[in-house]
Amino acid sequence: AQTVTQSQPEMSVQEAETVTLSCTYDTSESDYYLFWYKQPPSRQMILVIRQEAYKQQNATENRFSVNFQKAAKSFSLKISDSQLGDAAMYFCAYQSYNTDKLIFGTGTRLQVFP
Amino acid sequence: GAVVSQHPSWVICKSGTSVKIECRSLDFQATTMFWYRQFPKQSLMLMATSNEGSKATYEQGVEKDKFLINHASLTLSTLTVTSAHPEDSSFYICSALTTGTSGGRSTDTQYFGPGTRLTVL
Description:
- The complex is a heterodimer of chains A (114) and B (121).
- Chain A has 114 residues and is mainly beta.
- Helix content of chain A is 0%, strand content 54%.
- The relative contact order of chain A is 0.34.
- The model of chain A has no long low-confidence stretch (mean pLDDT 95).
- Chain B has 121 residues and is mainly beta.
- In chain B, strand 10 and strand 11 form a beta hairpin.
- In chain B, strands 2, 4, 5, 6, 9, 12 and 13 form a seven-stranded mixed β-sheet that branches. Chain B has a four-stranded antiparallel β-sheet with strand order 1-3-8-7, with no helix packed on it.
- Chain B contains no helices and 13 strands.
- The interface between A and B is medium-sized, with 22 and 22 residues.
């Protein structure tokens, strides 16, 4: 069975600085998808970024980028130029190629200080 | 695009009553929707997969008779918590799956509703 691990329960960053959130996963599959979702205090889950395992190129979405290391089974999220609105819980998630179910990590709470 | 709504956003009910939560995809059709449960300061736990026109698939340990799921149209799935008890109090979140392909690859992605906070007294 696949598992997703987020080893940082909490992280903090100064406004305008850069922060990296870690995620590792375990799978025997060769084809899959990885996601980062953001859950602000409103508790609305928001898709941040999506990565296909077969693509070598790291996904980017504006200030958000990932460092996908398939051999190491690592999928970290980098937030550049952090903003106060980035404060939220961030969940890493795994999806097998053959199923649309998501397996979530335990989350990392990000605080952004002015 | 890919907006999902849930109703109600919060509900308080008495023990023993049933509560229905609606999940709608507003700007796309969703053959598949998912229902999750989230306890305070915890991650999302998948309860079931809802498929339009067929029976839902429940995860291990989830009581089918307690959490009734109906996916009657391509834009609406409902979760009914039957004979609710205080231990059913939780935050329930649905998601709807957008489907498609690009370059021969799946682009399936889940988009989430805003959640429903259920409190059973």
